[in-house]
């Protein structure tokens, strides 16, 4: 069995080549030996990488012929889809799509968090919000983003649903990237602090509906800021 790191490197190289258009969707995958040589890996490693991408719907096995590269619309693996979404030329669309997904997931998470949060989690939310305010005043974007992500991560953990947390994990890298872009704008940071404060108030009051609505409002404000101040 090839070492996982070599296999994952081969997966990344294959996926990057497909996303870049070097390997074209709808066409056959080049011969195994050719790809192994190009990527500097063994045929066994290349074969395992292809198998992993088959599991994500990126590569389709064709009986009696070489594998076919599937169109992006047919991909089923979250990791592959997120990697494509982060690629050049896709950032604006993916940023808006990510917000749509966050609305669907995080509003429900906020509702559950208001009902299930512990005193310790409430303290963690308050600490994250205070940290956001301190780093906003200092103009420390990286630390502000870290506190922002901690606030939302605490809400997910407070919702106490393992499947919910697992569903959000593949989106973490995109969240860090988009938060960095938006949080570089002082006006957006100020809006975020205000929205998070309202959300915290609802969770503190154990008002599930108000928490859901506060998160929905926060997502709407984020989208408006993204469109007006970042993507424009």
From TrEMBL:
Keyword Transcription attached: yes
SUPFAM superfamilies: GntR ligand-binding domain-like, Winged helix' DNA-binding domain
InterPro entries tied to this protein: GntR_C, TF_FadR/GntR_C, Tscrpt_reg_HTH_GntR, WH-like_DNA-bd_sf, WH_DNA-bd_sf
Occurrences of domain HTH gntR-type (ranges): 4-72
Chain segments annotated as transmembrane: none
Keyword Transcription regulation: yes
Coiled coil location: none
Alphabetized UniProt keyword annotations: DNA-binding, Transcription, Transcription regulation
Top-rank lineage group of the source organism: Bacteria
SMART domains assigned: FCD, HTH_GNTR
PROSITE patterns in UniProt: HTH_GNTR (PS50949)
Gene3D superfamilies hit by this protein: GntR ligand-binding domain-like, Winged helix-like DNA-binding domain superfamily/Winged helix DNA-binding domain
Annotated protein name in UniProt: FadR/GntR family transcriptional regulator
Biological source species: Agrococcus citreus
């Amino acid at each position: 069995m090839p070492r996982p790191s070599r296999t994952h490197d081969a997966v990344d190289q294959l996926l990057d080549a497909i996303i870049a258009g070097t390997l074209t969707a709808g066409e056959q995958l080049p011969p195994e030996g050719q790809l192994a040589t190009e990527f500097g890996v063994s045929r066994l490693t290349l074969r395992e990488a292809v198998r992993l991408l088959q599991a994500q719907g990126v590569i389709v096995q064709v009986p009696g012929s070489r594998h076919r590269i599937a169109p992006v619309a047919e991909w089923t693996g979250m990791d592959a889809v997120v990697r494509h979404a982060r690629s050049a030329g896709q950032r604006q669309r993916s940023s808006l799509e990510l917000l749509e997904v966050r609305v669907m997931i995080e509003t429900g998470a906020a509702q559950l968090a208001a009902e299930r949060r512990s005193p310790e989690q409430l303290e963690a939310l308050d600490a994250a919000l205070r940290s956001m305010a301190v780093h906003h005043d200092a103009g420390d974007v990286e630390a502000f983003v870290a506190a922002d992500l901690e606030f939302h991560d605490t809400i997910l953990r407070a919702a106490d649903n393992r499947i919910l947390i697992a569903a959000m994990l593949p989106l973490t890298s995109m969240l860090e990237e988009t938060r960095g872009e938006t949080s570089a704008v002082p006006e957006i940071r100020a809006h975020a602090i205000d929205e998070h404060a309202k959300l915290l108030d609802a969770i503190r009051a154990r008002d599930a509906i108000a928490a859901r609505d506060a998160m929905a409002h926060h997502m709407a404000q984020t989208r408006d800021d993204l469109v007006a101040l970042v993507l424009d």
